[in-house]
UniProtKB/TrEMBL annotation:
Protein source organism: Phyllostomus discolor
Matches recorded under PROSITE patterns: ZF_PHD_1
Listed name of the protein: PHD finger protein 24
InterPro entries: EF-hand-dom_pair, KIAA1045_Zf_RING, Zinc_finger_PHD-type_CS, Znf_FYVE_PHD, Znf_RING/FYVE/PHD
The keyword Zinc is annotated on this UniProt entry: yes
The keyword Magnesium appears for this protein: no
Region annotation Disordered: where it falls in the sequence: 201-236
Coiled coil regions, renumbered to chain: none
Entry GO terms, CC: cytoplasm; nucleus
Molecular function, one GO term: zinc ion binding
Annotated KIAA1045 RING finger domain residues: 1-67
UniProtKB keywords: Metal-binding, Zinc, Zinc-finger
Length: 269
């Protein structure tokens, strides 16, 4: 049954990849959720492996409570972020610095945090346009707030049946029985949960193929080569069971909801 007109018809309905809603394309157009060329894109996307997210699931900002939204708006005001405007790297970095200073005026971003910010900016600007769009920025900030304020159990409750099923299938595809290795867990986080592109898991997959997807900002290009050296060498032996896998990836599963090509929360490392 179409979520907009609540009529069931046999003509093809667009399923949302996240929730259980389905839509007529005519209804989406009528409500202004898709416009002009958008329709062709939606048709195409909804029928690929990646799928299409409806307007509820596409907007991560809707996951925030009224109080959390108020807090975010206040931060934007104090940091002089203008809503609905795109942000350049300079805007983004200035905001990050100011946000870090809130509550503790002496605190500044460490070099490592600044490099992390550069990687995140690049991930939010997949087409290398030198700026990030407001909805992508808002999604990213909403995720950070969720990550900061909500206990993991509460985040787990946000997952839909489809998301759990897909995560479970990924876990089983990568794993050996009831556990998967730390490296495989990280790989899933970097590739699949970033924007679940169809990818056949293979036992010969090496973690070295999982490079940053789109590092293009000026600040990140110089630091890129150092990333690996800075990473502590983690023992690869830790095995991850299903509950841990889901808990550790929940924020990245949520981050993969929007249709935009941007990566809204880049995993560290
Ligand atoms: Zn309809
Ligand atoms: Zn949906």
């Amino acid at each position: 049954m179409c979520d907009v007109c609540e009529v069931w018809t046999a003509e093809s309905l667009f399923p949302c990849r996240v929730c259980s809603r389905v839509f007529h394309d005519g209804c989406l157009r009528r409500m202004g959720y898709i416009q002009g060329d958008g329709a062709a894109e939606v048709t195409e996307m909804a029928h690929t492996e990646t799928g299409w997210s409806c307007h509820y699931c596409d907007n991560l900002n809707l996951l925030l409570t009224e109080e959390e939204m108020y807090s975010l708006t206040e931060t934007f005001q104090q940091c002089k972020v203008i809503p609905d405007c795109s942000l350049t790297w300079e805007d983004f970095l200035r905001y990050r610095h100011q946000a870090a200073k809130r509550g503790d005026s002496d605190r500044t971003l460490s070099q490592e945090q600044e490099e992390q910010a550069a990687r995140q900016f690049a991930a939010l600007d997949p087409d290398h346009r030198g700026h990030i769009e407001w909805p992508d920025f808002l999604s990213h900030e909403s995720l950070l707030l969720l990550q900061q304020l909500r206990p993991q159990n509460s985040l787990l409750r946000l997952l839909t049946v489809k998301e759990r099923e897909r995560a479970r299938a990924t876990f089983l595809a990568w794993g050996h029985g009831s556990t998967i290795s730390e490296a495989e867990c990280r790989h899933a986080r970097h590739s699949w949960f970033c924007k679940h592109l169809p990818e056949a898991p293979s036992s010969s997959v090496s973690i070295s193929h999982v490079g940053p997807i789109a590092d293009s900002s000026p600040a990140s290009s110089s630091s890129k080569s150092q990333d690996k050296a800075l990473l502590p060498t983690e023992p690869e032996s830790r095995s991850v069971d299903w509950p841990t896998f889901l808990r550790e990836n929940v924020i990245y599963i949520l981050a993969a909801r929007p249709n935009s090509a941007a990566i809204h929360l880049k995993p560290p490392g």
